[in-house]
Amino acid sequence: MTGRRVAVLVNPAAGRGAAGRAAEQTVRVLQAAGWQPLTVTSRDAADARARARECVASGADVLAVAGGDGMVSIGLQAVAGTRTPLAVIPAGTGNDFARSLGIPRDDTSAAARLIAEGVRRSVDLGRCGDRWFGTVLTSGFDSLVTHRANSMAWPRGRARYNLAILAELARLRPLPFTLRLDERVLETEATLVAVGNGPYYGGGMRMCPEAALSNGRLAVTVVEAVGRSELVRVFPRVYKGTHTTHPRVRTFTARSVTVESPGVFGYADGELVGDLPLRVQCVPAAVTVMTPGQE
Q1: CA atoms within 13 A on the CB side of 79
Q2: What is d(CA 267, CA 52) in angstroms, rounded to the nearest whole number?
Q3: Cβ atoms of residues 270 and 200 within 8 Å
């Protein structure tokens, strides 16, 4: 496996330089393994998307992305439906796609070694229009929280997300949703609706615990209308995935899901997708990723 070409895509300023340091460590690990890494720097998201596609088009044997789920999302748009594998070097706040794949999140060298020593695994992706996502598409309360958190410059990390939750709790209201789950139609008032290709989002919350990356189906979690005090009581259970036992939480699986609610928007992999209605499909084996394991 020596002599293979790896493009390491990074915004060196992301995470106050954490992504840049992770990319540098990845290059050192790959060089020691006899690979040919090339660091590809980007200025912003638009530049990163263009450079990711250039790397795939130029014939890179692996596209590695150093960063969080936002950078993973950029990588997925470039490699989905191609034969180019994606390698994830976690260097973000959430790292939920890496979490779902079992990629080390606190050991850059171990994550980098998967490029040379790991297993190539085909996994499903969610597709919404021309956008691919690996984790969860959210709408309602959680998309409002994500939107607010992304607009805040302070504080950083988990504290910023928690502060956004408090701000949106003050504005909490039930929303009318219409869901189309394959051939089934469900109309309900809900606090939030999440469509999961994988189980995690928001830095380790198991919003869709029934989701699996290789089962050809989407997992849907519907939190029906609840008051502030009840939501505050139930929401911490999301980290263990036990919220699904609450009587106001319903779960479904489907290959295709359409989510409708007036004036509501959706986020996937922490990135804004657009206003509802949105139709999501599970695309089996849409991407190849480098993961731990034995051949």
Answers
A1: 34
A2: 21
A3: no
